[in-house]
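MOLECULE: protein
FOLLOWS: sequence and fold
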Amino acid sequence: MTEHVHRHHHADMLSVEEARDRILQAFETLEPACMNITDSIGLVISEDVYSSINIPPLDNSGMDGYALRSEDVQSATLANPVSLRIVGTVPAGHLPDFAIEAGEAARIMTGAAIPGGANSVVPFEETTESEGFDRSELRDIGIRTPVKRGSDIRLAGGDVTVDQKVLQAGTLINPSTIAVLASLGRDTINVYRKPEVAILSTGDELIEPGLSSEPGKIYDSNTSGLIASVIAAGGIPKPFGIVRDNLSQLEKKISEAMNSDLVVTSAGVSKGDYDVVKDALASRGILNFWSIRMRPAKPLAFGVLNDEKLAKVTPLIGLPGNPVSSMVAFEQFCRPAIRKMLGKKSSLRPTIKATLTDHIYNHDGRRVYARVKIVNEAGSYTATTSGSQESNILTSMAYADGLAICPEDVPVKGPGESVTVIMLNWPEEMI
């Protein structure tokens, strides 16, 4: 059996929380933008929304039936229906031009306005119409049950009243929210705009997917993975393609990328990386190169790029180049930043407790984020590693439902032990 050595972390490393807190301090919620309501799904309302109308606007029927005076049918029974004279029909969307007097009723559809004088509605099923009469010939209708005043009538303003605050700033827009806005007559809404995220992948060894493979080269998976991650987080990706280890080219790309809300780079942030990446970044602003107490994704760069021409400062997060490290670091640092810019209440993914079925080893005192598959067995979750945990093995990330945490001070988590799992495919709003 292989012996797993557990070494204590270095004091100069930052915890995940320390790094994330420092990063988030550089971000604010973005300015509002006016958007069509049907394009606003998943965004956050930046204004309190008040109603200018009553909903419903008028007293209306909650059933297909007959509008009448409840006092006229209190003696009605199945055996001895009360007969009322039919004085009209009220379809939905039309205002009645008559009123109900004693001994009268009006045929009415669901949602139609209640005629004056009527105070209740009796469903068709409780009348003699259900006995198969030709309703075109009906002049009178038999009511077979007494009804209470107000029965099956939806009152004006029963849902929303004029000047009522219907939605408050900070509300996350979902399909129901959009339906409510439409019911108020709104076709646009002010929301916090989506952040534009520039994406740069660096390295002479990279080639674009779709091209023929070359000896010594690898396909650039980081750019595609980061584009998808930005979209999933609610941002707008601005990919700048592969940037070679060339100082002038890198500086040019960085200058172009600064007209964004966030610049995300992959590779070039480890101690052994070529200094050209660090030189290019440092020449444009203040960059910090950190070691994070986590596995994968130990190396991380963070700082701000200064553009005097644009008179703006753009945050930059430099991710490690290993594919899984890049994705895990994005989850922990970039995604929360995007969500803060969007005005989202929660910046972190939801977590669950699961029972581990195999081992997670912690070799060096860093927090381990292990890729796991989750199974729900009768309301209890189990977690099983989804493959190799090496930082270059993307397939185990693709097979994973979540990231199981082995804390910094725990050398190993074994079968039967409880683990906290960050769920990758659950919406943050669940927490």
Summary: Residues 60-154 form a domain with the Molybdopterin biosynthesis moeA protein; domain 3 fold (CATH 2.170.190.11). The chain is about 15% helix and 30% strand. The two ends are 40 Å apart (CA to CA).
